[in-house]
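Lecture 7 notes. Example A: sequence first, then its structure tokens.
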Amino acid sequence: MSPREANSPLTVPSLLALDRAHVWHPYGPMPGTATPYVVESAAGVRLRMAEPVGGHDELIDGMSSWWAALHGYNHPVLNEAVREQLGRMSHVMFGGLTHEPAVRLAAKLVEITPEPLQHVFLTDSGSVAVEVALKMCLQYWRSLGRPEKRRVLTWRGGYHGDTFHPMSVCDPEGGMHQLWEGVLPRQLFAGEPPTGFDAEVDPQYAAELADLVERHAGELAALIVEPIVQGAGGMRFHSPGYLRLLRELCDQHGVLLVFDEIATGFGRTGRLFAAEHANLSPDVLCLGKALTGGYLTMAATLCTGRVADGISQGEVPILAHGPTFMGNPLAAAVANASIDLLLGQDWQGEVKRLESGLLAGLAGAADAPGVKDVRVLGAIGVVQLDHQVDMAAATEAAARAGVWLRPFRDLVYTMPPYVTGDDDLARICAAVTAAAVAG
């Protein structure tokens, strides 16, 4: 392509040809085998397509762009926050310098997250937030003269990202990272937590978990889980009682507790943070996705003063990690605006409204052929099949219903933006059901 051609508007066929030749999409082969839909623009909860998809010029977004766009698209408040910050500076290195958007964001996160989280390390993405969290835990014990405490325990069914240490604590069999067996650190895995948000804690599972922590406490640096909702590992919900059990076990046996709230943070489960369902706090907390309202990539790892002080006492009294775009002013500014926008409205009422709509709208899917389970929590609706979903067929069925969904494994699910209206939510539910039947 000549420089002149590179700056000319692309026809959809030309764009897709270049995409297939050069663009490596997530979880896909190269060159690609599936043709992606081309988005021209987005506003509210609608994606404007470059050409009709399923007979529609627009698709309602049922995914919040992988759970990030809480406020929908092209929101005037968030747009203005980016424009205002762009007039000041788009980026400045965070090593040796600081700036108001990042400082305000760190203080805001400390204020709204459960105590005693006090310190904030800003990162580029959710996976990196988990990398930093595990590095904090490992370095904490090394600084305290306990370098043998270098393994991590989690439960099966989890997902924590695609970089190396996060991959090591994803489900080793049901996840996407079996390819790396023998390369990743060998971590410890308990069984999947029993399902059911309202279920009682299973005594046998609790005893098995307690035994595992007790037997390996001498080598465990940390225990990491996704609280309440296991996301990309299976969209499973569990009781807050298991979080209380984990907190007790970690305190009893000298293990740091890490919560990965990259998917659940900022109200998705009905509480601002999922840990609040159990009225407790971890030692380290990972946030991402919705942090910037889906505008720019940014994540955060928070820790207690105990963890920070422990690291500072070591032979190397620093956390040796520093992303180039750490604390990016544009991302920090829009994150501040997004959090203020969320907390300045009745977000709990909106999430409850979405929960009620999902319960009603997905109820009929339980009787559809091939459906194993239907479950809803907060602004999360899940239809689980008794077989692997035909992703192409399910996606096309949703598009014909005027909705964008991204099924995976045996799941057709939705995490709509909080601004989704009742009529659009009903269409999303109909599309989920259609996709489940087609898939």
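Example B, a different protein, same format:
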Amino acid sequence: MPERENPVGGTDDVEAVARAVLTASRLLVAVSARSLAVVEERVTLPQFRMLVVLSMHGATKLVTLAEQLQVAPSTAMRMLDRLIAAGLADRRTNPDSRRETVLQLTEEGRRAVADVMARRRAEISVIVERLSPEQRVSLIEALNAFSEAGAEAPVPDLADTEPFPLGWVDAAPAGDG
């Protein structure tokens, strides 16, 4: 693909952008992995992703949860069984349809998600504080544009959410953890 002059004076090089995004994603994966230290003895990264989805959506049917995680229902069930054994999730009868079971976080599961997200947010804040105000503005614009191009819903203002931003889904790959 040919390089084009961009208004800022550099070149529009898709490969350079891809390399920069991959480098940044390595950093974010490392931050994510370190933030899991508070729960790593009990859950894997894919299992934590399930906790995040459950915390976002509340009581959820297994099929819906599997769809959101883009895994087979059998995979979601194995992951869920491990989370239930760890005391982080549970099953209950759907109050709207007694023939259905819904899955949800326990209070301990909600605390685990909140703790991990607080650690992640704190470490990212330390990194962002190293940037100049101008770099921060540019980063916000670039990341928002990147997220929009990938059809990712924006995270609400952190100050307006408890225990962490709803709509946020960990980008870790799903799998049978």
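Note on Example B: Strands lie at 4-5, 11-12, 89-94, 97-105. The chain has a mean pLDDT of 82.
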